[in-house]
Amino acid sequence: MPPPSIRTPDRKVEVAWFSALCNEDCEFLGVQEGSLRSNFAHCSDLVKRSDALGYQNILLPSGWVPGQDAMTFAAAMAVQTRQINQLVALRMGEVWPPMLARAIATVDHIAQGRLTLNIISSDLPGLKESNEDRYARSSEVIQILQKLWTTDGPLEWKGRYYNFSLPNCEAAKPYQQNGGPLLYFGGISPLAQELCAKHCDVFLMWPETEERLAATMAGMSALAEKHGRVIDYGLRIHVIVRETEGEARAAAKRLISKLDLEKGREIKARSMDAQSAGVLRQDELRKRADPDLFIEERIWSGIGLARSGCGSAIVGDPDQVLAKMNRYMDMGIRAFILSGYPHLDECDLFAKHVLPRLPQCRLNEVQNRRVANPVTPLTTAPRK
């Protein structure tokens, strides 16, 4: 299998944590805790702790019931943090694109460039549409945003979903003048992959076997090259790290020890992406897991019993977790978006045991952006 072409050839990685804006924190999976429910105080603590511990980014997810608005939250946190970027999830089509561009530019200026965007194409709350409509609209919105961020004069847009004429674009000028905030995107369907290959900078994947991840990356690399582009690859995954492997495995079992499987299915069904191609692929992998729910060495799929989306965790002692992440980095992965339960506790544990041992970078500081660039093949072979 040919190695992927990546925009960040240096063997460094951006390590991000997660703020549970969509009520996605607990001590026991499937048991909603009052103190851990989505609220500004708790979620802002997650961001500030991640900032203090040296994580380079933090994902602010987008949901509906219950939850907080990610862009509004990011604006509030931008002035309360020192160095961390914020990865704001935005569902395309929710906001009139010129106003969205201005909102993004405003937050980018407040954060002095510490803003990145996670493009979402799932259904809007209360509305069900075809994949073709959702991804076509997302493509149009992204193009409009990028035009607004980089155009000095008037802008005429005549498209399938949006038609407008603006006398100037000054209101939408972001702090980052090298193309605007970096765009992250996740989705495994053909339409999703095409959208990312054409418009986005970082392709995010959910946990699968190394073989399947490598195949996806190779296919995406070839697809991006057809559009004269080169992208990076990221992995959204949970982590359970303890001083010994036995303690880590015990923590994983404890996490699902109070889970009612029917309740877990109900929680999963609430998500607007519960039937997406990526979720169904993870469900299929979990059905083939071993009796302890491991789909391969170190990758435990128990979280997917009660969570739509990212459903697996790296489980092990510090050396084992680091070794697994090294394998991913050797494959060409340049971003990790991590989380664990409860999120504050696991944030501390990972920062204590693993984070300082990873060679780190910030993907939005890599100069290779959306313009066509020479492709840099990955030459490092995966570790055996």
Please provide a written account of the structure.
This protein is α/β, with parallel strands linked by helices and 384 residues long. It has a domain at 14-238 and 329-365: TIM Barrel, CATH 3.20.20. Helices cover 37% and strands 16% of the residues. The strands form 2 sheets. It has an 8-stranded parallel beta barrel, surrounded by 7 helices. A two-stranded antiparallel ribbon has the order 5-6. Helix 2 links the parallel strand 2 and strand 3 (86-91). The chain is globular. The two termini are 16 Å apart. The model is unreliable at 370-384 (pLDDT under 50).
Topology:
Elements: E1 14-18, H1 40-53, E2 57-60, H2 70-78, E3 86-91, H3 97-110, E4 115-120, H4 131-150, E5 155-158, E6 163-166, E7 183-186, H5 190-199, E8 202-205, H6 210-226, E9 232-241, H7 245-255, H8 261-270, H9 277-287, E10 294-296, E11 299-300, E12 313-316, H10 318-331, E13 333-339, H11 343-353
Parallel strand pairs: 1-2, 1-13, 2-3, 3-4, 4-7, 7-8, 8-9, 9-12, 9-13
Antiparallel strand pairs: 5-6, 10-11, 11-12
Helix pairs in contact: 1-11, 2-3, 3-4, 4-5, 5-6
List keywords for this structure.
globular; alpha/beta; eight-stranded parallel barrel; two-stranded antiparallel ribbon; 384 residues; 11 helices; TIM Barrel
